[in-house]
Amino acid sequence: MPAAKRKPKPKSNAKRKSPPTNEIEFSIKPGEKTTLTIEAGRERAGEVPVRIRVEGGKVRSVAKPIEVEGESKRWRILAWLRKFDLATWLFVGAVILYLVTRLVGLTHYPIYFFTDEAFQTQAMVELIGRDYRDIDNTLFPAYFGNGMGLTVYLQWIPYLLFGKSALVTRAVAAVITVIAAIAVGFILRDAFKLKYWWSGTFFLSMTPAWFLHSRTAFETGVFVAFYAGALCTYLLYRYRSPRFLYLTILFASMAFYSYNAAQLIVPVTGLVLLVSDWRYHNQNQRTTIRAGFLLALLTIPYIRFKIDHPNSADEILRLLGSYLVAEIPVSQKITTYISEYFFGLSAFYWYIPNDRDIIRHLMKDYGHIMLVTLPFALVGLVQVLRNLRESASRAILLVILVIPMGGAMVQIGITRNLVFVIPAAILTAIGFERVLRWIENPREELEGSTHASPPTRKQVSASAGILLAGAVLALLFDKTIDRISIVALAILLGFHGLGYFEKLKGWMRDRFTGWKLSHTIVSLAAFGVLSFANIFLLRDALTNGPYWWTDYGMGGMQYGAFQIYDIIEEYHQEHPETKFVFTSNWANGADVLNRFFIGIQPWLDGGSIEGYIQRKYPVDENTLFIMVPYEYEMALASPKLTDIRVETIVPNPDGTPAFYFVRLRYVDNIDEIFAAERAERAVLREAVINVEGQPVSIRFSYLDAVDQAQSIQEVFDDDIHTLAKTLEDNPFVIEFTFPAVRTISGFSIISGSANMQITVKCYPTLDAEPVTFMFEGKGSEDEPMLSFDFPEPTDVQFLHMEMLDPYSPPPAQIHIWELYFSP
């Protein structure tokens, strides 16, 4: 027979009572030994009685059993909270406040949404649309247009989850920057062993330059965050475990691929840290070798990029207008670099409000770093210089010296040198700690000093050298704050070497009783003050930031992205028949913003009223122009336009017009006006320019340039990065009248990748019959130059050339970068 199954007992739904909690409080004198004995008795009715005996201490009180439901749970929570010290909880509070001050009002300040911000998500959208290949058919490219790289991929998952959103794009970058806030705190805790290590997060958060840029999606903020993460994990590798080196390599690689300037800063930082801590690296060879393999693996995308784009660095320098690629003497380049480098280290640039940077990268009346924190930073720098035998101190000093190297290659600017805020926050926190220790217990600081012994001759010489060098260096700077900072630093270091501060402390110790404040009270007070400073900065930015600058246009704030596109879409829904001509003269890369907010729409044209004034385009009652103020004034003044009606004005924050929604039409005789202008432009322009070292009279087609002579000169300046292009003429005609007969055997031309039919007529003398040659060719990106030889060398005094693109009917623009004649 099968065994009978036991009937399961019904489960009790009654909630078990929490066991009573017993509390015992007792006190002991300092140095007194106390024995706490816990004795368990025999089990009775499922319970074990416990007796607690305290020997050597005086029992103050014994709490009665507390029969409160859930008390034990609350006790466990309290016990868990007590696992962490006060500094840790203040650090958590600082990080939370950091996030709050990054995310609150994210679309209200900064008031612009810049092209570089929109580009990252838009590039990801277009990459997905091309099956994760760029326009060169590279799968998962390392870099995109505008020189951006990893920051594009960081928008991948957020885009898939939330779609295109300016708020999400900014929020992603802002959240990533919390890495920097955490890294600064950990560096101060684990490498510098500070009591008030959490203050570094506050000082970083309230740094105006960082506050502004960490609330944008600019790639420089993400780079700084990863660079700070790399610096933090490197110091953890030095002070906690060699295994942190792998994380260092990962963070450094992410920083490298985030920003163009990182391609110099990150490798140089790695090199100087390799040399600085060579002995430690050598002691951990296995870890170092493995990290080297990881580094080699992570450099593969960059190697692939350099193979495909070998001239990318030169192109970026030219795009940024660097003096390094300018036609100036090498000595001038060196002088300029040194000047820019030291300017990037100057207190004047970092702590005093300046007009060197573009206003959209500034907070009005604020320096890039709070001026009030400069004394703390100087004290912190002295501490670092005094402890250069410590790896952490060397690392911070080396990072400070490396940071300006990239920006100095172009011009020191906040976006290129923003990473300076990381060591600045660390130095400030170190100095702040010294001050708080004196406030907390000055007697303890005085007791820490000994009666100073007379300095040695070597110390006197070194201190005198520091003081003299400080005086000389201060004279090299022309800003008062730089001189004061250098002199103060020299005095602090020099007087310390001479033992003056130890003597002063000894004198004070004998005459000063001092006080002792609770560490908790001092910490909470400092936390409150720094929290207030952060909240004040946020409030000031949100309340007053929109009115700090009144230049809201292209050259200033480029205001309007958060407002204008919602208005356009709403207007389109109400008037679906309307075709918008939305000016591109309100922001850099307005086409990127159009694609980001609206996409490619048949009813939206990215043109400008300027183009409609220069050339006739279809305009009817369904055409609506969106103009900026100067374009509206241009339209009013143009004799080609009439019946101008303003339908809507979108205001700037201060109430002045930002955009005009305008309907208009051409005047009745517009065809005659344009015909007369075309006839005038068809007449060849005349100029005398330098061709291969001699003045030559030339006549040429009307160019798309303000200065016609300067533009045509760029065809003969031996610079492949400058060009001339016709406004509308195809072919591009150039006629040369040489001062004397010369022999030409051929020519070379750079005209892009267009198909070219070139006709050359050579006149031996001005009144002779021409010798005509015809050539055809097509350049490419790899071989942009076309070279042609005449059947035989030909004497020429007058030369007529026509460059025709047969596949581009006029009006069309023909581009020529360079033209060379072969003797």
Q: What does it look like?
A:
It is built from 34 helices and 18 strands. With 823 residues, it is of the alpha+beta class. It folds into 5 domains: 24-81, no CATH class; 88-441, no CATH class; 445-516, no CATH class; 561-674; 683-822, Jelly Rolls. Strands 10, 11, 13, 14, 15, 16 and 18 form a 7-stranded antiparallel sheet that branches. Strand 10 (685-691) and strand 11 form a beta hairpin. The model is unreliable at 1-8, 10-18 and 59-70 (pLDDT under 50).
Keywords:
823 residues; alpha+beta; seven-stranded antiparallel sheet; 34 helices; 18 strands; 16% strand; disordered N terminus
Q: Spans with pLDDT under 50 lasting ≥5 residues?
A: 1-8, 10-18, 59-70
Percentage of residues in strands: 15-25%
Q: How much is the average pLDDT?
A: 89
Number of beta-strand segments: 18
| Domains, number | 5
Distance between the termini: 117 Å
In terms of quaternary structure, the protein is single chain
Number of helices: 34
* Rg computed from alpha carbons, rounded to a whole number of angstroms: 36 Å
Helix content: 40-55%
Structural class: alpha+beta
Shape field: elongated
Sheet with most strands: 7 strands, antiparallel
